Amino acid sequence: MQADHAAARSDPEHPEPDPILEPSAPLAPQRFVTEPSGLRVVVLISGGGSNLAALLAAPQPEQYPVHIVAVGADRHSATGLELARQAGVPTFVERVSDHPDRASWDRALTEVTAGFEPDLVVSAGFLKLVGPQFLARFPGRYINTHNTLLPAFPGMHGPADALAYGVKITGATLFVVDDGVDTGPILAQVAVPVLDDDSEETLTERIKQAERAQLVEQVSLMARHGWTIQGRRAFTS
Ligand SMILES: Nc1nc2c(c(=O)[nH]1)N[C@@H](CN(C=O)c1ccc(C(=O)N[C@@H](CCC(=O)O)C(=O)O)cc1)CN2
Ligand SMILES: NCC(=O)N[C@@H]1O[C@H](COP(=O)([O-])[O-])[C@@H](O)[C@H]1O
């Protein structure tokens, strides 16, 4: 039976369906629900942590609050760690260079993060690609905020790339991380104009303002309503 099936698929008269042009059965939606006691969130950072600061400062309702239970970084120089300490939030640092290889770093990052039992992990300027162990431990529960309108300008230099290309509109994208680089299902996007006299610095700062507001709003929606991932599509309602 198995062999017949394989033979039929390799038969040029019965080609495999193109998954984009001829989608087969729709993928079952994955639903993530939250408890009224709130959403436990670990935030990962590498730098100043202005997105983290916005999450820490957001007013919280009695039901479905967002609890930042820990902040992690890949480097001691991440100045956002100090914001967490000042807010009384536990911090940790997991450096790649303290491990024999990337897989061992990935395992250690996974274990220390999982120790805080998060419902959601938010990467906010975390400049490391996580590996398969991390993604397998937090499936559908690891999100990243990126400073362009994906799929345009992925990677580490989004605003500079957008400016160099000459686009008139860019923005920020919140997405569920997968095993690619900035390729996961998109939860939300906000558009930001590129002005004629923008430098990389002015554009980066305008994007960051919109990005922070989007992140706070979307994480709050995730706490209140949960979220859904269906194939390439993701929703916070
Ligand atoms: N598996 C994934 N991990 C992460 C993603 C992702 O899409 N898939 N997004 C990031 C954040 N990110 C952009 O938003 C990003 C982070 C890091 C890199 C990268 O190439 N990093 C290098 C090291 C750079 C350095 O340390 O200076 C690396 O990881 O070796 C690209 C994009 C969160 N994680
Ligand atoms: N692709 C990775 C990347 O460039 N991420 C960007 O780093 C900034 C972190 O700012 P913050 O430390 O002030 O929150 C954010 O704008 C985020 O989109």
Report on the structure:
- By secondary structure, the chain is α/β, with parallel strands linked by helices.
- The protein has a single domain (34-235), classed as 3-Layer(aba) Sandwich (Rossmann fold).
- Helices cover 32% and strands 23% of the residues.
- It has seven helices and ten strands.
- Strands 4-3-2-5-6-7-8 form a seven-stranded mixed sheet. Strands 1-9-10 form a three-stranded antiparallel sheet.
- The radius of gyration is 20 Å and the shape is globular.
- The model is unreliable at 1-9 (pLDDT under 50).
- The structure holds the ligand Nc1nc2c(c(=O)[nH]1)N[C@@H](CN(C=O)c1ccc(C(=O)N[C@@H](CCC(=O)O)C(=O)O)cc1)CN2 and glycinamide ribonucleotide.
- The ligand Nc1nc2c(c(=O)[nH]1)N[C@@H](CN(C=O)c1ccc(C(=O)N[C@@H](CCC(=O)O)C(=O)O)cc1)CN2 is lined by residues 123, 126-130, 144, 146, 155-156, 177, 179, 181-182.
- Keywords: Purine biosynthesis, Transferase.
- Belongs to the GART family.
- N(1)-(5-phospho-beta-D-ribosyl)glycinamide binds at residues 49-51.
- Pathway: Purine metabolism; IMP biosynthesis via de novo pathway; N(2)-formyl-N(1)-(5-phospho-D-ribosyl)glycinamide from N(1)-(5-phospho-D-ribosyl)glycinamide (10-formyl THF route): step 1/1.
